[in-house]
Design goal:
By secondary structure, the chain is mostly beta strands. The chain has helices at about 250-255, 300-305, and strands spanning about 5-10, 15-20, 25-30, 35-40, 70-75, 90-95, 100-105, 110-120, 125-135, 140-150, 155-160, 185, 200, 205-210, 215-220, 225-230, 235-240, 255-260, 265-270, 275, 280-290. It has a single domain, classed as Beta-galactosidase, Chain A, domain 5 (Distorted Sandwich). Strand 2 (about 15-20) and strand 3 (about 25-30) form a beta hairpin.
Length: about 300
């Protein structure tokens, strides 16, 4: 089946672009955003969280959570990061299944955001290119930041690098690197390791969304290239760009962050911090995929059997 695009009404918004290839559907808001407000397999529910009280509205003075998938600019602050994206969006079809979305330029901060979505002709694979252009007259420092707000009730799977044995006494080591750390974990002041949502295992970290517990967050210098979220037997896989050790990342070196509270769970990727010259653009790429009928897991062997084989 060829890729179909159509302008549709969606939950109060009159202008939204629907992309479908017969296997999967994406809906991107045009009255605000852009947000990929829905991503779902045919005959299944949206994997993203939608804040119903904020749907169908526009023109608000302040930034709105809304849900779905969005492009932010880091490092996080209370002004540029939370600049309102509550005005209309224009789009252009580059080729079948590849659409570019442009919100209104943010003159105050000298940036132009852009989303480019490319849907495969079959299956659920989609590539999302997040671009930020400096439209001002001065060099600005920033990092592109992409966040997917997942529907509640699921569990996130974060792979870890392969374990290596301790080299033993110095005469047994091949080099000082044998004793060096190879992973980096960043912790926020409201993170509680004792509430049971986060589990650190041998091959994976898991984080369960819990409707009864408040905010918690961790970040990683993530080198494994993917993260997954299993919710009601639907598996969402996000593939992110490789961590570049020679680059500087926001939040003490994070190219991946995850946040959860009572309402949702966010899966976030970040690009390196860059001093962006006037007229220049930086970009961050993600790939998504969905799988149905995935069994729940009890341990890491189950993850390997049911989930790792899909990666």
């Amino acid at each position: 089946m060829s890729i179909q695009t159509e302008n549709i009404f969606y939950k109060g918004w009159h202008n939204n672009l629907r992309l479908s290839n017969g296997d999967v559907e994406l809906i991107v808001t045009l009255d605000v955003g852009p947000r990929v407000i829905s991503y779902r397999l045919n005959n299944h529910k949206n994997v993203f969280k939608e804040f119903e009280e904020q749907l169908g509205k526009s023109g608000e003075k302040n930034w709105q959570m809304r849900g779905g998938h969005r492009l932010w600019v880091g490092p996080e602050d209370l002004t540029r990061t939370y600049a309102a994206d509550n005005t209309p969006v224009v789009y252009k079809e580059i080729k079948s299944g590849t659409i570019k979305f442009l919100p209104k330029p943010d003159i105050r901060y000298g940036i132009q955001k852009e989303l480019q979505i490319q849907l495969d002709t079959s299956g659920s694979k989609v590539s999302i290119i997040h671009r930020v252009k400096n439209i001002g007259k001065k060099i600005i420092e920033l990092a592109p930041w992409a966040s997917s707000v997942m529907a509640p009730g699921g569990i996130e799977i974060i792979p870890l690098p392969e374990k290596k044995p301790h080299p033993g006494p110095p005469e047994s080591a091949r080099s000082p690197k044998d004793y060096a750390p190879n992973q980096q974990l960043v912790i926020w002041p409201f993170t509680d390791f004792g509430d049971g949502r986060l589990k650190f295992n041998n091959k994976y970290i898991t984080l369960r969304q819990n409707k009864n517990l408040g905010p918690t967050k961790i970040g990683l210098a993530h080198r494994m290239g993917w993260i997954a979220y299993l919710n009601k037997n639907i598996l969402f896989v996000k593939r992110i760009e490789n961590y570049k050790s020679e680059k500087i990342y926001p939040d003490n070196g994070c190219n991946f962050e995850t946040f959860t509270n009572q309402a949702m769970l966010e899966i976030e990727s970040l690009g390196p911090l860059i001093k962006l010259a006037p007229g220049k653009t930086t970009e961050l790429i993600e790939q998504w995929e969905l799988f149905a009928n995935i069994k729940n897991f009890k341990n890491e062997m189950d993850i390997n059997k049911n989930i790792l084989v899909k990666i």
